[in-house]
Amino acid sequence: MDQNAVEFFRDHSANFLEMALKNDKFEKIEHPDGYGKYTRDCGDTLEIFLLARNGDIRSASFYTEGCIYTVACANAMIGMIEGKSVTNAWTITPRHLVAFLETLPQKERHCAELAVKALKAALLDLKETERQPWIKFYRKQSN
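The chain above was modelled as a monomer; its predicted structure follows.
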């Protein structure tokens, strides 16, 4: 293992490493109940997919072509909202993600903001889907 890899693992918490390396929630869901997409000025994009029933988020996933920091933030956020109420999901902030990950570098904190903005877009879409359930079969997502 080269020195940069050793330093990367040494410099990050177990929570960060787990969230950065797991991929079980990295998937696009066709016809989600809530879908959100946010792109930063730099071009990093994150998509969030929510499946909800009776006011609870039953399942969530994400898709990104972003960096390992975006993946870590997205996984942490999914862990915080899955199985919880939609009301609870609205309370998630970038600070929650930073605190959970413990070692997200200062210059990468915009990834936590990206995750939360994509989540808020998905929650707004979920609200619209609850009002008009048929809409989820006609929404456009990226391929």
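The chain has one domain: 13-137.
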